[in-house]
Amino acid sequence: MSREDVIQGDAIAHPNVALVKYWGKRPARGNLPAMGSLSLSLGFLATRTTVRFDPAGGQDTLTLNGSRNSRDLKRMQDCLAPLRRRAAESGSATVDSRNDFPTGAGLASSASGMAALALAGASALGLVEDLDLVGRSAMAGSGSAPRSLHGGVVLLSIDPEGKWSCASVLAPEEWPLKVVVAVTQTGPKQTDSRSGMELTRRTSPFYKAWLESQKADLEDAGRAVAQRDFGRLAELSEGNCLRMHATAMGASPPLMYFNGATIECMHRVKALARDGRSVFFTVDAGPQVKAICLPDVLDEVCDALGRVPGVQQVLSGDLGGGARLVGG
Ligand code: DP6
């Protein structure tokens, strides 16, 4: 490709939360997860990413929430690499990414950020029709990012050879689940997912069992979703979440993502469920708690989690759609 003009793409994607989690990569296979995962799109939170390719060259740059960021520059370049290869694109990339949710709230933004970047980059380079390429680009940035290209309930499956695919299995309107996020800590987390999962894979004696249990969890959760069986999905998701954390706690040195309020929130959710409310929890590689519930108990869940000592903020809303271009 040769051109003289600056070209630009602009896209929005929602973060997602995994109910059956990805925690561990295939060694020596780039950024390929070792297991499939199942997630929900968080429609009430969004990341908007703009990318400009300048044929005049120069350095790639990344601005995140208004500040220049060099820590995530490599990840951004990894994400753009498949697109640049396809387009034989040599211009420098200027990426500007913004979250509409509170900065430092410790909510995973790499998935939404990389999904929006892959779509924006593909749009700038005229490659947006190639959904497979957009997916691979998102995956190169973050293993959870292909899920943020899709809406509602999303399944990322991987076969033993490492061939993967990702698709929405239920649109948001097909099962109006609500998600509540209890923010128990702001500021950067101690160990990011990438180094945490690699440490776990290398050192946790529980990793093999975790890996082996994933296939059944994924199949069972897929069935529970297809049948809209909230109780079964609750049981599977909480079990999967706690097994992921148990596996990480078995690493050396141990990884402990929970704080006191995280544990208190999980107990509150369990108490509500014991009282007959349709709600369950999940926790990613950080101290925030996500509660998934049916619409009739949303207010009660928000209220209960808001009262837990140490909870600084409660955010809630509906499942969202897939990533989309802005003005495209
Ligand atoms: C606990 O997708 O952030 O949120 O591929 O290294 O970018 P990288 O990791 P990332 O890990 C997500 C871990 C998790 C579980 C999940 O979202 O499936």
Could you describe the 3D structure shown?
This protein is of the alpha+beta class and 328 residues long. Helix content is 35%, strand content 23%. The protein is built from 8 helices and 14 strands. The strands form 3 sheets. A 6-stranded mixed sheet has the order 6-5-7-4-1-14, with helices on one face. A hairpin with a 6-residue loop joins strand 11 (279-282) and strand 12. Helix 1 packs parallel to helix 2 and helix 5 (207-226) packs antiparallel against helix 6 (230-249). The radius of gyration is 19 Å and the shape is globular. Ligand DP6 is lined by residues 18, 21-23, 31, 37, 108, 110-111, 142-144, 193-194, 284-285.
Question: Could you name the key traits of this structure?
Answer:
single chain, 328 residues, alpha+beta, four-stranded antiparallel β-sheet, 8 helices, 35% helix, binds ligand DP6
Regions with little confidence, pLDDT below 50 for 5+ residues: none
The radius of gyration computed from the alpha-carbon positions, rounded to a whole number of angstroms, is 19 Å
Shape descriptor reads globular
For the secondary structure, the number of strands is 14
Secondary structure class reads alpha+beta
Average pLDDT reading:
94
